[in-house]
């Protein structure tokens, strides 16, 4: 098969792992910097170019779209879809996962366990918003943040009011969420491929840090997940329409709750923690989905 990986940098661990896995299985692999692409939007003849080169003949694409380029990246993925190319994750599913509020609303509608979450625009609702999520301590998140950036733990009510006021002064959209104290600064990353959890790791934040992201100094270890956690992860991925995703769970007193569903999960941490070749599994999923077939059938609306 002729497979393109949409990524800005071939040297990134995840991109290179996917490229090498595809080569080992005999596929024609190529890494394409999607930001350098341009599209020709013509009735019945959609096309994509990289400079003067017309990109055609591809059987599948693996989107590795950075958060900074979500809008343009999804447009490129959509253009490939219009050309009949299978995308591991569809453009609409990627868009859903990148919008924290939208994804939480979709998951809530289907009964997925979530932290109590509040969203408001009017500054006069700040006090009610804090009360809604159980008061301090609480977590305040920028809707556009990734890898733990723009996530603040407000330990007192006064601190929460100050943080919310500061973010609103920047015209930033924010979420307020209950703080799951019993998680102890740890979360579980479940890697879901083709509707199955193929690997799971526990990420523990460094001392004094409630965020467990590996980019922020967290550590990773293998973890055995419960049937309920496995079901929650696979259902969350399915609801958002993602074939490949990283589902982040917290262990709360009332069961697993979903913090986030990532449409371009990093492979380095979880491959090293578990010893599993997840890049190979993703390539195998593409093979099974069939040449020229639509791998993703996005469920529901929104």
Q: What can you tell me about this protein's structure?
A:
The chain has 302 residues and is an alpha+beta fold. It folds into three domains: 2-96, Rossmann fold; 99-110 and 182-289, 2-Layer Sandwich (D-amino Acid Aminotransferase, Chain A, domain 1); 117-179, Dna Ligase, domain 1 (2-Layer Sandwich). It has nine helices and 16 strands. It has helices at residues 13-24, 70-82, 91-98, 100-109, 126-132, 157-169, 227-240, 268-274, 278-289, and strands spanning 2-6, 28-32, 37-40, 47-50, 53-54, 60-63, 86-87, 117-118, 138-142, 151-154, 174-178, 186-193, 196-204, 219-222, 244-252, 255-262. The strands form four sheets. It has a five-stranded antiparallel β-sheet, sandwiched between helices. Strands 2-1-6-7 form a four-stranded parallel β-sheet, sandwiched between helices. A four-stranded antiparallel β-sheet has the order 8-11-9-10, with helices on one face. Helix 1 packs across helix 9 and helix 2 (70-82) packs antiparallel against helix 3. 41% of the residues are buried. The model is unreliable at 292-296 and 298-302 (pLDDT under 50).
Could you describe the largest sheet, including whether it forms a barrel?
5 strands, antiparallel
Arithmetic mean of pLDDT: 90
Structural class: alpha+beta
Tally of strands: 16
Radius of gyration: 20 Å
CATH overall fold name of the largest domain: D-amino Acid Aminotransferase, Chain A, domain 1
Shape-level CATH architecture of the largest domain? 2-Layer Sandwich
Residue stretches low in confidence (pLDDT < 50, at least 5 long) are 292-296, 298-302
Q: Report helical residue fraction.
A: 25-40%
- Share in β-strands: 25-35%
**Could you give the distance between the termini?**
32 Å
Please give the order of strands in the largest beta sheet: 14-13-12-15-16
Number of domains: 3
CATH C-level class of the largest domain is Alpha Beta
Helix count, DSSP H or I runs of 4 or more residues: 9
State the fourth-level CATH superfamily of the largest domain.
Answer: ATP-grasp fold, B domain
- What string gives the helices and strands in order? EHEEEEEHEHHEHEEHEEEEHEEHH
Shape: globular
